[in-house]
Amino acid sequence: MRRMAAMVTSADGQEYPVQVGGRTTKSIVMGVGAVALIVLFLFPLFGVTDWTRRLVEFFCYLAAAQMWNLLLGYAGLMSAGQQAYIGLGAYTVWFFADIVHINPLLCVLFAAITGAIIAFPAAALVFRLRGGYLAIGTWVIAEIFRLIFSSISQTGGGAGTTIGAAAQMAQTKGVDGWYSQVYWLALAVAVLTIAVCYLLLRSRTGLALKAIRDDDLSAESSGVNLWRTKLYTYIIAGAGCAMAGALIALYSLQVRPGSAFSINWTAYLIFITVIGGIGTIEGPFIGTVIFYALRETTSKYGTWYFIVLGLLAAVIAIWSRGGIYGWILKKTGFTLFPLQRRVGFGRSEKPPSPPASEGGGGAATV
Amino acid sequence: MDWVNTIVSGILLGGLYSLFAVGLSLVFGTMRLVNLAHGDLTVLPAYVALLMVGSAGRFNPLYAIPLTMVVMFGFGYLLQRGLLNRVVLKGDIIGVIVTFGLSMVIMNALQQGFTANSQGLDAGKIENLSITVTDQFAIGWLPLLIFLLAIVVITALQLYMGHTKMGRAFRAVSDDTDAARLMGINTKHVWAVAMAVALLVVSIGGVIMGIRTTFSPLLGTDRLIFAFEAVIIGGMGSLWGTFVGGIVLGVAQLIGAKVFGSPFQHLVGHLVFIAILAFRPQGFLAKTVTK
Amino acid sequence: MSLLEIENASVYYEHFQALYDINLKIEEGEIFACIGANGAGKSTLLKMLSGTLIPRQGRVVFDGEPIDHMPPHRRVELGISLVPEGRRIFPSLTVHENLMIGAYRNRKGPWTTDAVYELFPLLQPLTKRQGTGLSGGEQQALAIGRALMANPRLILLDEISLGLAPVVIKRIYEAFPTMLENGCTILVVEQDVQHVLTVATHVACFLEGRIALQGVPSELTGDQITAAYFGV
User: CB of A194 within 8 A of CB of A285?
Assistant: First the structure.
């Protein structure tokens, strides 16, 4: 799957195509991936168990992490407030299911739309800040939502509310029926977020985002519309996180403002993305797995769990920037989602020799 | 009269906020680092004072303040030199991630050591002492003290930055780090001193607040947000701006509490912050930043 | 023992080699000029001497002490002071404060703010002016004065004539003898050969990271210098 993205001219006038894609054992990987997907798809047919719950949560964390990673690793925006959209997604489900009486499963779509709509004015405000202050700004917005929803009695105030329509469906369809459906929806959302990230990054917008990540100012001077690209990324991330929140609400049949809008979400997303590897699609995969394993084994230790999370994230951010996947990438060059852009010199051709006074040269990978 | 009471209380509360905010602003001004652990670092001194008071038998925690300040100064120096210097000037993101991790560690370590329960520092009668202005209107002694201390501290910081060798070094390092090194300034040391001074400043507010009300490890989050809001409302780059920002925030919060009820205190503050971000994002007293 | 000895020094920017095997000796009391075209390696040499860059091979010895791995602030302590390319005046500090920052390391010596104002009278009326409000010539004078405040034994001047009118350049060069008298050896890097060779006691010409020619200006012909400069 090598798509021509552009042509590039070397110093001696020859033209070479720029190809997007990497050297991987592609057919093996695609095969393994397809098998894994089929297995995951068939999973609930063997009966709904604790593992179903775990996997639904896993898919939700993975989807949210992909979105967070898109914001940070590509657009260079660190958001400490994605929990705003997670909570909004949950409450949107409650609203459209219990008040407007729409099929709860369909409400996930409404959650995405709500997330996207809210993200727009939020971005307008928050983009006036930069860096760490922008992060805190997003946090304030999440806090505002938390406080609002905690005080509206119609939504149950601080105690939250159950999603009656969903609980009813669970009753009528039976536990297995209902939770399987939520599971499949969650799987679909996880796959969707990964697909969106992958396609986005392969496109021209993807190159724009990479440029932004590497250097704001030179990206702008080469004609990349900074503001708009960051805005679109933020809107997509808002929609994605809202869907994750919606799914969790559907699975737990309730929504509580304290946990839906909790800053802990940001803590988890930071951990997953930093440990897994910022800026790659594979990274959040690995990060979510590790995060989940850690959670299942040590979360009963409460505060120690968070201390370990915090320490690990800080240490890896300082000493191993690419996270675990970055390490794997360096050692083996193995990618599941090839995104590197290479100049196609063809297998038998050598790249043209660089002019004498320059150092470096050859096929630069972006 | 009731309104006057609210506004005056808001102004005094603003003094506290600005005391916390100045520390955040100082660190950002000298090394472009947004310290997400800042809020927790304002709660930490209360626990330090608690340890001192607890271990030395019952003495008035007010006397623990100077020693706590020294401890926090040293801690700030070591924290910066040992950990945070590695993230200065390496881009926004890594600093945010590391300080967020630090915040989690501090918050949870305090919970682990002291439980999440609220604690208090007992300073006796002074906690409730107030100055009666009229028979409907009184000002608490401690809130007034904090407010006055905020003014003293900010004045002292301005003088420090403007007239001392280290203060000049802060400004030079902030202007142009490489050129500062070429002038013989050891930036690692200067950054550490900046953090130490910031923690010295916030420890004053942290301990007095511990005396005035209860404190718990979970307080840090809100304090970070209030400090941040004060800085942005007042305008970045100006210490007195941060003072004004704190006062605006304090007054907004208490008016909000009065009009809508106390559960809405923080929410109104956030909304006022958002309004200022929307309509006057440079803040009230913004200085033109040269970078 | 020479004041400054550079032995077989090679400096890289990542994978790109900027200086190849440089050998140089500077004696106390000299005005040593390093000339060469853009990109020849002169500024890299100064970065190596001031501590911004560390040589991958070779040694730099200052007054008998090896300094190649010493951080910049310690070199100032030893007596090496740089006037950076582009001057790098601190914009939010006043002229007077810029000078005071120069004295951060408190080295003893003849240079005080008064002495600097005497050397560069044009700065006298500007003491309270902020760094941002100065002309090119004023900034250059300030940058040199700031470096002198460190009471250096060796002052490094990086392209001080860049962007300045010839009259101004001349005035700055006129300050050299006073600097020498007060115990300061001068290493000056320039693209503009004409002016600097009128004051230099020694010259080294750089070409593509190597020294193509070294000697005393009075003993070298114009052709020799041109050849070394352009590499013909």
Answer: no
Regarding beta strands C4-13 and B137-140, do their DSSP bridges make them parallel or antiparallel, or are they unpaired?
A: unpaired
B171 → closest Cβ in C52, C93, C150: C93
Closest-approach residue (CA) in chain C for A358: C16
Split into its structural domains, chain B has a count of 1
ipTM surpassing 0.95: no
Contacts of B83 in chain A (CB under 8 A): 314
For an interface test with A, give the residue of C12, C16, C20 to mutate (most A CBs within 10 A).
Answer: C16
Chains in contact with A, where contact means 3 or more Cβ–Cβ distances below 8 Å, are B, C
Q: Is B42 on the interface with A (CB under 8 A)?
A: no
Residue type at A282?
E
Is the residue at B182 inside a domain?
Answer: yes
Residue type present at position C128: K
Per-residue pLDDT of chain B (291 residues; tens, 9 = 90+): 688 889 999 999 999 999 999 999 999 999 999 999 999 999 999 999 998 887 766 677 788 899 999 999 999 999 999 999 999 988 778 889 999 999 999 999 999 999 888 888 877 766 677 777 766 677 888 889 999 999 999 999 999 999 999 999 999 999 999 999 999 999 999 999 999 999 999 999 999 988 888 899 999 999 999 999 999 999 888 899 999 999 999 999 999 999 999 889 999 999 999 999 999 888 887 664 433
Residue B16's φ and ψ, nearest 5 degrees, are: -65, -50
Give a yes or no: residue B170 inside a domain. yes
Q: Are C91 and C52 in contact (CB under 8 A)?
A: no
CB A147 to CB B270 under 8 A?
Answer: yes
Decide yes or no: CATH 1.10.3470 for domain A27-337.
yes
Which of C 181-210 lie inside 8 A of A, CB atoms?
A: 208
User: Within a domain: residue B107?
Assistant: yes
Domain that holds residue B200: 2-213
Place of tokens 């370990």: A308
CB contact under 8 A, C15 and A357: no
| Residue B257 within a domain | no
Tokens of A269: 């997303």
Query: pTM score, two decimals?
Result: 0.87
